[in-house]
Amino acid sequence: MNSNYRQALIKAFTFIGGLYFFLEFILPKKINSIAGISIPGGFEFGLYHDEISRSIQIVGTMALGLGVINIIQVHGANILKSKKGWGNSLALLLGFFIVVIVQSIDLGNSEQRLDIQQEIRGFSSFVAIVHEQYVDSSTPAAPRIAALNARLDSLRSHTQSGDSYLNLSLPESHTELTNAVNEALDNARSQAQELENNYASLEPDTASFPAPQLEASVESSIQALKKLAELTQELSMLHYENTFGRKGSSFFFGAFFDPLGAAMFSLLAFYIANAAYRSFRVKSLEASVMMLAALIVMLGQIPFGPLYIYEDMPQLRVWLLKNVNAPAFRAIYFGAAIAGLAMAVRMWLSLEKSPLATEKTEEQ
Amino acid sequence: MDSSARQKDSLAERLERIDRRVVYLLIALALSLPIIFGWKLPPAEMETADSFFRVVDELQPQQGKIVLIASDWGPGTQAENKPQTMIAMEHLMRKRIPFALISITPYAAPFLESMPRDIKEKLEAETPGETWNYGTDWINFGYRPGLIIMIQGLAKASDLHEVLKTDVSGTPLADLSIMDGVHTIRDISMLMEFTGLVSAFNYWVQFFQADGYRPPFVHGCTSITIPEAYIYYVSKQIVGLYEGVAGAAWYETLLTKKYPGRESGTALKINTSLAVAHVVIIALMILGNIGFLVRRGDS
Amino acid sequence: MNSAETALFGLPWWQAFVGGICTIAIFSFLYKENPFYRFFEHLYIGIATGIGVMATINTFLWPTVLKPMVGADRIPFPDGTYAEPYNEFYLLYLIPIAFGSLYYFILSRKHNWLAQLVIGFTLGYGGGLAFKATFNEMLPQLEDSFRPLYVAQQGAQSGIDWLATLSNLVFLFTLLTALSYFFFTFRRSEGGPAEKSALAGRWMMMGCFGAFFGATIMARMALLVERLEFLINKWFPLFFA
User: Fold this and answer.
1) Measured between alpha carbons, how far is C185 from C194 in angstroms, rounded to an integer?
2) Which of A189, A191, B170, B292 is spaced 20 to 30 Å from A64 by Cα?
């Protein structure tokens, strides 16, 4: 494609990218007329805001792999070529891949748990829908409820097996929960069996069964299934907490990421102390003003104690922050904000070269 | 130069050039001693934390209203942001005001799960018979990617149930009673935001508002951003502020005054260590300047 | 120590032990640059990247985009039906997915310009959002900057509230002089009012920077005290238990 067309296309995409949010900001929420022509019912500009937002989020998320490719390229090459510090590259990639593997397993564990939770949560809606369709269009209900009963029976076997999110072999501290789940399963099963029998006795002759009795049976089944869903949710969460993925993720965060991150930032404390001691000199009047302000702020924020020199120091500190620091910083902020907006407009209208543009594209 | 002048000069020089490792050691000792000996000093009064306390204390539990806590921090700034978030959460839980946790940074996710559980344990131990439960007293939306787009999406949502769909563990919001009646930004009675990132705070200031409604906004910043946070405090864009861990420590004092039986948390301990370290740094600064002035006087 | 402090993610002792080693490894840098520090530093970067990538996949890409697209978010019923029918509109997500995938052309020399489309789009929406961001944030700031230069006493007392009036005067003086410092549109005459104002602004900003410095000290110390607290109360006791 001709490079001029390419440039025009890039500029058009840049402009379109900003257009929606610009219009969304300046236009009223509902437009009732355009140039004197009224729009019946009005036009709501942000009607699809959620969908547009999500789409933009998806576009951004797709860049995720670029970072991964980059670190693999750079550090992979270091290892393969045994460059100086290749061990560090190995540590980086090791850390990255172990976390990715462990968290992928966690995602799998979490999905299994969610599947079973969702399915059991859906039972009560299932009964309601079956009944609704039975009443509205005489869709046979008994075989469908029989399918529910078969599923409940298979779930009962899960509670016995040791590898499921529903198994009841929990430590004694959870006896109350295991008993409750057992009871809820039995109750839901017997209610659903009764419901199946009721439907079976009715079909195909719907008129012979007293409707209120059927309604009551449906309602009690729904309640029993809801109770079962609530308890199995708790049970499956308990099992999920003990899965390899979950424990592994928690381990990496707690044992490595949390202490390393905190320690890395805490190093700065030593450097700031050293810098304060070495470079904070009253070389000029300006430096003295700065030091005075720093001292007031420091003394005003520390606890009362034997070293406290002036009772109203916290008030003096707040006064300084509110009436000297805030306006001075606000002046800086105004300048930066206006410059930022000007820069953003230039970017939007493609008046500014993209910082990410390659030389080759710029030449075009 | 005679010997006394040389001696004076070398003393001044020595005052100016204490080895950096000695400075490091002094700082480590100043911070460690209060922890080892368990010293706790009453914190300095903080007007901004007073305002924070007042607005939270005036808040009443209401059906269909929740407080949104944006906990946008990770291990790097947990020293300040964690005590802040926990103390605010504790106040809400004591007042039985339901709240939702969310974060725009992925590194906060494990904290969002552990913090309310820890407070629940603490409160239940303190008041036997009372319970605090997930789904009724708090909810965790977890980490939500998308920064500005996500925040704006929340603010403009016609139904939060549709936008957020589930909580962090995949439970549909409709199944959690805390979300009954909570559908739009107008159902969020207060926004609390804790972060060490100025940009994260700015995003909430800029985008968490819709149709002329902006929930009362309180903020917990790390000490380094206190001067910047003040411009929003004086303009009333935020109605309460925790100034680093010192703000949280003063809040602890206020909370203990209101609930005398409560066990104090980490903020007071950290704050006491900070005081000793401040004194050491001020002393070092004075020493360095004495050396400098003596040397300059001589030359 | 209360339970809230000991139960850091429910860490058993060996996890706390590893955490202590990580902390010491990072602190070893204070003595001098060493391979032990470098190794853990790189490990940290790797883990941080992994957590960041997986968080986006686990919390957004899979549950919000891919799962509904493949229909895996529907609740199955025991009779083989589903709670709701498959929604084909989710397939529209393929458009942003395809568009976002253009990012990867940045790796191609020949088709690099395709990546510019999506980069341009991203910069564009940043520009579009900037209007809202700037005005929502700045207008209350502007509004607050209009301060009365005479503040009357509140309540029963009458007359001037000296402290509030003085505070407002200092506030406005600082704001205007600091703004004038950044005014570069014309050349300031030497010794003229513009230069004097800029000089005053510079002085007031020194006060602001001093406050920044004081606050920074506290911030940095707070980060360190958390680590020391961990080492003293959770790590060292492991060796004496």
Assistant:
1) 12
2) B170
